[in-house]
């Protein structure tokens, strides 16, 4: 990130000014990507989801054989987990996070595209573990700005994997099915690059499936 930012700010008048300028730019990008997890919000949403699920569904079934394989993968030392899932409804992220959290697997970082949502909803989801593609990634940017954006985002994904936080990537966006979405391609490319560059020695790709009798 420092190398890219130095190239981006090269040619400006003062070192102190340019340093402050790219640091502010990086902090803006980070603020778009993530927010610190809120344990209080997680506990409240855990309680609220139980109430919501009881009202929405007659039952939620968890496949014990598949759960055992996921737990076995989680016990692999020094290898981060990347969950890959189909995307059937807007509830998938909350439901899968709730199920993984309830089984002692921690709170996964749920990848989200740069689609528009209200600032309040975005802030809430970020506190619950969502990480967002910066909205500017879909805009026409200069090569330097695009390079800085990709460097910050790529480094962030490397740090998530290095700290062994589970990462949940949805392979498409509802209601589109059987087609790898553009955000999924970007997230998977960053995971691949983190392994290729040696930021982590390996990752475990764990497929998880979710199905509804009636999609909510």
Automatic annotation (TrEMBL):
Domain named Phospholipid/glycerol acyltransferase: residues: 81-213
UniProt cross-references to InterPro entries, sorted A to Z: GPAT/DHAPAT, Plipid/glycerol_acylTrfase
GO biological processes: fatty acid metabolic process; glycerol-3-phosphate metabolic process; phospholipid biosynthetic process; piRNA processing; triglyceride biosynthetic process
Name under which the protein is recorded: GPAT2 acyltransferase
Record-level Gene Ontology MF annotations: glycerol-3-phosphate O-acyltransferase activity
GO cellular component terms, A-Z: mitochondrial membrane
PANTHER family: GLYCEROL-3-PHOSPHATE ACYLTRANSFERASE, GLYCEROL-3-PHOSPHATE ACYLTRANSFERASE 2, MITOCHONDRIAL
Organism of origin: Stercorarius parasiticus
Lineage of the species this protein comes from: Eukaryota, Metazoa, Chordata, Craniata, Vertebrata
Keywords associated with the record: Acyltransferase, Transferase
């Amino acid at each position: 990130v420092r190398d890219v930012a130095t190239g981006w700010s090269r040619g400006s008048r003062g070192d102190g000014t340019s340093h402050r300028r790219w640091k502010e730019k990086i902090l803006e990008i980070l603020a778009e990507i993530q927010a610190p997890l809120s344990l209080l919000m997680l506990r409240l949403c855990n309680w609220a989801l139980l109430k919501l699920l009881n009202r929405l569904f007659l039952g939620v079934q968890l496949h014990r054989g598949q759960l055992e394989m996921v737990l076995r993968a989680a016990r692999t030392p020094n290898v981060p987990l990347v969950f890959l899932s189909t995307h059937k409804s807007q509830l998938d992220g909350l439901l899968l996070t709730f199920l993984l959290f309830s089984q002692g697997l921690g709170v996964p970082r749920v990848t989200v595209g740069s689609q528009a949502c209200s600032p309040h909803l975005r802030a809430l989801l970020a506190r619950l573990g969502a990480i967002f593609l910066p909205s500017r990634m879909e805009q026409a940017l200069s090569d330097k700005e695009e390079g800085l954006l990709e460097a910050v985002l790529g480094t962030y994904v490397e740090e998530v994997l290095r700290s062994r936080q589970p990462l949940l990537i949805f392979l498409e966006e509802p209601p589109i099915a059987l087609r790898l979405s553009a955000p999924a391609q970007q997230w998977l490319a960053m995971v691949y690059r983190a392994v290729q560059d040696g930021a982590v020695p390996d990752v475990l790709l764990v497929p998880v499936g979710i199905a509804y009798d009636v999609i909510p």
